Amino acid sequence: MSEPRPIQIGGRWYVLATSAPAEAQPQPLKREDLFALFDRYGDIVPWEGGDQGLYLQDTRYLSHLELLLEGVRPLHLHTAVRDDGSVLAVGLMNPDLTRDGRVVVQKGRVHLLRQKLLFDSACHEELQLTNHGLGALRLHLELKLAADYADLFEVRGMARERHGTLAPPALDGGALSFEYLGLDGRRRRTVVRFDPAPQALDAGSAHFTLELAPAEQAVLRWQITCERPGAQLSQPLPMVAARQRHEAQLQRAATGRSRISSSNPMMDRWLERSGSDLDMLTTTLPTGPFPFAGVPWYCTTFGRDGLLTAHQCLWVQPQLARGVLAFLASTQATEVDPSTDAEPGKILHEARASEMAATREVPFERYYGSVDATPLFVVLAAAYWRRTADMEFIRSVWPHIVAALHWMEHYGDHDGDGFVEYARKSVDGLIQQGWKDSHDSVFHADGRMAAAPIALCEVQGYVYAAKRGAAELARELGEHEDAQRWHHEAEALKKQFQQRFWCDQLGLYALALDGDKQPCEVASSNAGHALWAGIAAPEHAARMARRLLEPDLFSGWGLRTLGTGQARYNPMSYHNGSIWPHDNAVVCEGLARYGHAESALQLLGAAFEGSLHFAGSRLPELFCGFARRDGEGPTRYPVSCSPQAWAAAAVFGMLGGCLGVEFEADARCVRMHSPRLPRFVDWLRVEGLVIGDARVDLLLQRYRDSVGVDVTRRDGPVEVAVVV
């Protein structure tokens, strides 16, 4: 078998898929920056699925964890993850166990229950064994363990010429430890502790001998603790204490988000799963909470993903936006560095803490190769102000907002034509730097790739919204000259955008302008983002509302990234014909913004019906763009992340858009502009909606052509208005 090739294909860093997974993976576990992928037995067996493992900061700290009963794997009964995503439970039973050629324990006499919890940089596991037979049993269990410290980019398919030093496993006071000294000079260590101690422990296995009377139960526990580079390994909590603290943290997280319930239990299931996934993906940084993008490939900070996720959740969970803005302000670029596509004022695209990032084998330790994160930073800051009236925080990030605007005006617009473009500076960076960052995602109608610098359709919309938002903030801060300038620049951009991007024959805005200012006349979902940003002309929006729902773009399960008749259309591609829930949410909000409620509700309905076909109602990062067929669900995309933050946030963005929710927090006012509910929801309850220091509960009732809004509880001065 030949060596795997590097994963840089056409300049795009992507996830290598050389074969199909051996079996469906159970839902992963994540806590802060620790995450794990197990098979359905609760094991980590890399020959079944190359991505299985226990990971911390993009490094696999445990590569093998296998439970054997009398030398064989138990039989699988069930695998489940608790609704809040915190505990993995696996039910097993013994197969027929033989000795000297005869069956000594018939199958199904012993039940094994494995429960796993991630907390405080450790994986806690409890194994309960129960004898359901009529006689006493003597059983031998073996737990196999190994650690390879593979970098996540290796797991994704990238070959490395050199590695650091992997020390032999060590035994220390009844614990088993693994250690690796990386090429970055950092030491990483994994320690496995047992309770009770095993009867025998060697370099790769723990052995237990148990005697169980009829109906007797035995409990074994082990903790796998991951030591961060440069940190002292802490003594892990007992599993009971870890569970208690974890439960308390989950409750605190839930109190920070408005609760939404409805008349439809399946809608509630989607809402609950999405909220739980957001809690699981949100990591506490020194600057506040930040939703890591997705498990397994993007379990780290991504600027664009964090900004759009926070914006979609803003109406129900505003503190997430504050955490995202604070972190991205703290990592904003301050100098020109072509190797990382950094320029002063530019907002971070991606940050990694793994060995290959530290040694610059991959360029993502701090990488700035996204053209849209910078305007989206300003868009979110303005939206956060409207939602919270938190002027103290806005003042603290104001210099970063001004720096972002300076980047748009000077570095983002290299040729001074008024449009923000991108062209890669880094040799190893991303060729395409919009949200569709596959190397082949921006092209002309005949399939020719667009030459850089490229001005994307949606990016101009984001810049328009950013300048309008900055003008609003500047007026609040008394910076009237800047406010007037940014307002005029936004209006000039909007006018120029109509002239250069509108394609009458498509009924949509062009995907992009290439380096020669020629439009890429391609039917894509990017045009729908112009509605979300507010840059679309009303007459064009009306036509787009019909066009986006035509069969070439709308599959029945959602809006495709690319129309079926386009040159590079492929329903199994990453960006050229697939369906992304967050993309549909952005377009849904945009349609609702321009008053096209029926089209918006159609996208919401398709996403809801799609959620019914995914395990636990969890929408993945993306799925294939095949047309909907009777009696079948959506077709999954093999290496998509699940959970993914902006996919989890999609339901909140769609609902907020269809309800027309707007805030004037400084006036303690929440308004709903022509609110609508989908046909599968008769009523919707929103509890704990925070405006300043006031709270309000709302009940929305669907009628034939309208929605009634009742205030069922009000704590503090707050006005609720419905605008028709």
What's the short story on this structure?
The chain has 724 residues and is an alpha+beta fold. Helix 8 (391-410) packs across helix 9 (457-476) and helix 11 packs across helix 13.
Distance between the termini: 66 Å
Biggest β-sheet: count, sense, barrel? 9 strands, antiparallel
What structural class should be given to the helix and strand makeup? Answer: alpha+beta
Low-pLDDT stretches are 1-12, 18-23
User: What is the strand tally?
Assistant: 36
State the share of residues found in helices, binned by percent.
Answer: 25-40%
What is the gyration radius calculated from CA atoms?
Answer: 27 Å
Give the overall silhouette. globular
What features would you describe in this structure?
This protein is an alpha+beta fold and 724 residues long. It contains 16 helices and 36 strands. It is globular, with a radius of gyration of 27 Å.
Quickly list its features.
4-stranded antiparallel sheet, alpha+beta, disordered N terminus, 9-stranded antiparallel sheet, 25% strand
